[in-house]
Structures are given as C-alpha cells and as structure tokens.
UniProtKB/TrEMBL annotation:
EC number(s) per entry: 2.1.-.-
SUPFAM superfamilies (alphabetical): S-adenosyl-L-methionine-dependent methyltransferases
Keyword tags: Methyltransferase, Transferase
Name of the protein described by the UniProt record: Class I SAM-dependent methyltransferase
One GO term (biological process): methylation
Length: 200
C-alpha cells in the first residue's frame, strides 16, 4: 500500500478545486488551533505544511494575528492561497525536502503529514526541529495506531499512514519536543487524532 503515498501529490494537483470546494469554510478545528496559538508569542510566524487552499485553517490563524508561511506540493493549491491571501508567503515545495533556512514560532501539519509513508514520517521530525524556534509549538494529525489505511477522494484512492503512539513520542523527544496534548479520534474535532507539542 505504501506506493499509494507516491500518488498523493498528483491526486491533489488534479483535484485541487474540488478539494477546496468540499473543504469549504467549516472549521471543526478551532479549539485545537486556539490551544496551538496559546503556546505562541504575540504576532507569531507560523509554518503551515500541506496548507492546501489556505482555507479554513491558515485563514483562521491569519485572522488571529499570525504571520503565515504556507507550503504545499501542489502548485494549484498554492495558486488558490495566493489568490485569497496575497499578503502571506506561499511556496510550492515538498515538506519532505524542506529547507527554508529560517525558524518559526509554530508549525502545523494538519491532514497532510499523515499522507506520508512510515519512513518519510520518521524523517520529518528533524525537519520539524530545523524549522522550529526555541519554544515553538508543533501540531499535526496522525492515525490512531500504527498502520496504513486507504480512503477515497474524487474517485481515487487516498493513502494514509500512522506510526504507533510510542514511536511518535520517542521521535518528538529525540528531536527536542515535549508533548503538550494528545487526543485519539477526538469526537469534537471530526475524530481527528491530534498531537500538540512544544520545542524545549
């Protein structure tokens, strides 16, 4: 199933406008985004990995006073971001190869990181660390347990993967992060499994 991870970028490129339309403005994540923001300094800069169209998550953070830098592998998604939020910094890039040579007060990878295969997820933690300022918050979504799952979007197979809870905890700790909060399949947040951590 891991080969499904290799098709994710193409899927989102082909269906960027459909994704943006279906995602819409509904924000079930507000409570977690507020918890994330509580860990940030005033007027923080936030790196949004796999930002999609920028709506509704990046928009919410921008409206809350954050300076947003968004990264997505799909140029079509970044074009939507630039159209909606021309004042922010939007970049076409693969998070697995990211090297922006700057650090951020917060990093978020919501519904994006979990499309990576097991080894690519493991390799992301040094990338998180390299882009995290001291005290930076990190929030990402994963699956509830180790394994792979295949969903569907616009008639195509949609790959997801997750490491085990213990491995995520070990990777965070090894890269200088402490877990602040963790919830498995939060019923108030669309059954997302959420990790919120802070760099020591």
């Amino acid at each position: 199933m891991t080969k499904g991870a290799e098709r994710i970028i193409g899927l989102y490129r082909r269906h960027a406008h459909i994704w943006a339309q279906r995602r819409g403005d509904r924000l079930v994540e507000a409570e977690w985004l507020d918890r994330f923001k509580e860990l940030l300094p005033p007027r923080p800069n936030v790196l949004d990995l796999g930002c999609g169209s920028g709506k509704p998550i990046a928009r919410y953070l921008i409206e809350k006073g954050c300076e947003a830098t968004g990264v997505d592998s799909a140029p079509e998604m970044i074009a939507l971001c630039r159209e909606s939020f021309p004042q922010s910094d939007w970049r076409v890039a693969d998070m697995r190869e990211l090297s922006l040579e700057r650090r951020f007060d917060g990093i978020i990878a919501w519904d994006s990181f979990f499309h990576l295969g097991f080894d690519d997820q493991r390799r992301m933690f040094p990338i998180f660390r390299a882009h995290a300022a001291p005290g930076a918050a990190l929030m990402f979504t994963s699956g509830p347990a180790h394994g792979e799952a295949i969903g569907e979007f616009a008639g195509e197979l949609l790959y997801h993967a997750s490491l085990a809870r213990d491995e995520y905890e070990a990777l965070l700790r090894a890269n200088g992060f402490e877990v602040v909060a963790h919830m498995v399949e939060d019923p108030t947040c669309g059954r997302h499994t959420i990790w919120l951590a802070q760099r020591r």
